Amino acid sequence: MHVTCGADIELTCPISSKKKSDDVVSWFRPNSSQSHLSFIAIGDILFPEYATIGRFNLISSPSSLLSRLLINNVSLEDQGIYTCKSSSSGQHSSIKLFVESDLLLFPVCSKRSLSCEE
Fold first, then answer.
1. Which residues contact 99 (CB under 8 A, 6 or more apart)?
2. Reduced to 3 states, what is the DSSP secondary structure of residue 77?
């Protein structure tokens, strides 16, 4: 999934249980160093590091068999693989989020030359 910086997106995860109340869906993604998983939410509870950002929200409705994760004002740091897992079935679903920016970024240590010709 491709999204532009500043946009709002909704990630969805199907819930396999016929009774939504029987299923607990977890959302997670690799942390920035890719060394371990960072949990975003379990059930209807956002983990503090995501809740305090104020851009992540869970949307649920009793009639829907979907768990929805809303990310407002997407930033480059939000890029990565998001996975949801159902407690009742053990099944999981992943989506890779690519965040596109209008800015051209260079690494801090990169050397660039600029010359002007008349």
1. 3, 4, 5, 74, 75, 76, 78, 79
2. helix
Burial 4-24 (b: 16+ CB within 10 A, else e): eeeeebebebebeeeebeebb
CA–CA distance, 87 with 27 (Å, rounded to integer): 11
pTM beyond 0.90: the answer is no
Q: Which fold has domain 2-100?
A: Immunoglobulin-like (2.60.40)
Domain ranges across the chain: 2-100
Comparing CA positions, the residue from 61, 16, 70, 2 lying closest to residue 41 is 70
What is the b/e burial string over 94-103, where b = at least 16 CB atoms within 10 angstroms of the residue's CB? ebebebeeee
What is the token pair recorded at 98? 């690519």
Q: Give the tens place of pLDDT for each residue, 56-77.
A: 888 766 566 778 889 999 988 8
